[in-house]
Design brief:
The chain is an all-beta fold. The chain is 1% helix and 49% strand. The longest helix has 6 residues.
Length: 469
């Protein structure tokens, strides 16, 4: 497998060189005291939106205030003024974990969380965000924030999962231009220990979720989850009945693991409703075993699970409108971690070939999932971002700098371009890559964060760059 990965790097250049490969100069977005947890989205015309948590001094709070802010960029006009989506809230009981989805035509959906639930605000193209709607959390007592998952198809239909394995989960759907509505869960009432995990939508109206049942025990002041059984379920357009797959995978073979909520499944759909699910096989060490994939055509059974053609941890999974899907994996080849992509079609359960993108430098921060990301547009163009590290230079050998790297492709039939470095000089001091998006033909956007210092104050800057054809 490693030999195949290294050989595939010869694909860089060739056909991709006929297309422009241009990233804008990096732009600091956050205010004087910085921001964190940034997310980005871009529409088919190349207009970008970024959202993040803004932390700043306020009142008597020693920790400052956290609130959700956003900026938008129009090509040729630059970034606009900062918009505040959530009110000032003293930390640590502030607003956290913003998510952002942008449709092809520029409508956007923002979501974020606080101690009382999940808030969602829709935004029309070039308009102001609507007043946020709050979704209550499950029965668990979350001290700071409520877990949630936000998904959207490229025409703007959205889905929201609120909660997790500890609290229980609820599913909400919102067709573009309509109100949010609660949807009955596909999980049978006979399974008390089960939760929704991932969700995807097709522009034809189908919804596919993954869910898992598990054993839950309590000890040493915490819950343990084990023996996961993965399922997928489809809700057809116009139907109120879920079509469950049955078990796709079972029994993780590991000792009880703190807050492990499943096989880390990821799901995608194309425009005609073909679906794919990838997940980790937890019965083997995940750094040197291949993830599994199952696909489904509407009205047909899910395919037998087969391994992807390379090993590692799945860090991203996306599909274009025609069902050309791509998975991004973090692969370990001693002594480094590598960013590897593999592609196939949702109409076939068998994938072949893979491409090593990251080269000889190890991908940074694999444990915390902050150093790597994939986005695929409906047209098939795609982008991968990853971070590598170097020392500070000069006499400062202990300071680590993160270098932000990117590789793009113009379509699913064109090879990946040679990697580009988006940060110059020594890179970012303790930088964190947080979000990447793709839309239209070869448009992409990325945000990352850089630790900065002002006197005795330490904060992070939110920084962005846009790829344009």
């Amino acid at each position: 497998m490693i030999k195949a990965i290294l050989t595939s790097t010869l694909l860089f250049g060739t056909a991709a060189s006929a297309f422009a490969d241009s990233w804008t100069a990096t732009q600091r977005l956050s205010g004087p005291t910085g921001g964190y947890q940034s997310q980005t989205g871009i529409d088919a015309k190349g207009e970008e939106i970024a959202v993040w948590v803004d932390q700043h001094p306020c009142g008597a709070s020693l920790n400052g205030c956290d609130d959700i802010v956003a900026k938008a960029r129009v090509p040729g006009q630059g970034w606009g003024a900062m918009q505040r989506l959530a009110p000032f809230v003293p930390a640590p009981l502030g607003s956290f974990g913003p998510k952002l989805k942008v449709s092809d035509n520029g409508t956007a959906t923002y979501a974020w969380s606080d101690a009382n639930g999940v808030l969602v605000a829709d935004k029309p193209w070039h308009g102001a965000p609507a007043k946020p709607i709050k979704f209550a959390p499950g029965p668990a007592d979350y001290q700071y924030a409520t877990p949630f998952t936000l998904a959207e198809d490229h025409k703007g239909d959205a889905a929201l999962i609120v909660g997790d394995a500890l609290s229980g989960t609820k599913l909400y759907l919102r067709p573009v231009g309509q109100a949010w509505r609660a949807v009955a869960s596909p999980i049978p009432a006979s399974l008390p220990n089960a939760s929704l995990f991932a969700v995807a939508l097709s522009v034809g109206g189908d919804v596919v979720v993954t869910w898992e049942s598990f054993d839950k025990t309590y000890g040493s002041h915490r819950y343990y989850f084990q023996n996961f059984v993965l399922h997928a379920a489809r809700l057809r357009a116009g139907s109120a009945t879920w079509e469950n797959s049955g078990a796709l995978a079972s029994v993780d073979g590991l000792s009880p693991t703190l807050n492990r909520v499943g096989h880390d499944s990821k799901v995608v759909l194309d425009d005609v409703g073909r679906a794919g699910v990838v997940w980790q096989d937890l019965s083997a060490p995940f750094t040197n075993s291949p993830p599994l994939i199952s696909t489904q055509t509407p009205g047909q059974p899910w395919s037998r699970a087969v391994p992807l053609p390379t090993t590692g941890v799945v860090k991203g999974f996306g599909s274009d409108a025609a069902g050309n899907a791509t998975a991004l994996l973090l692969n370990y080849v001693a002594p480094i971690f590598q960013a590897v992509v593999t592609s196939g079609t949702l109409g076939s359960p068998t994938w072949t070939g893979s491409t090593l993108l990251s080269g000889k430098k190890s991908v940074f921060d694999f444990l915390y999932d902050k150093g790597i990301g994939l986005a695929v547009s409906p047209s098939g163009s795609a982008v991968v971002l990853w971070g590598t590290q170097s020392t500070g230079g000069g006499n400062d050998y202990n300071i680590q700098h993160t270098i932000v790297n990117a590789s793009t492709r113009p379509s699913a039939t064109v090879p990946w371009r040679a990697p580009r470095t988006l940060t110059g000089g020594g890179g970012l001091l303790y930088g964190t890559i947080t979000s990447v998006a793709a839309s239209g033909v070869d448009y992409a956007s990325a945000t990352w964060e850089n630790e900065a210092h002002s006197g005795n104050l330490t904060y992070t800057d939110v920084t962005a760059s846009v790829h344009q054809p």
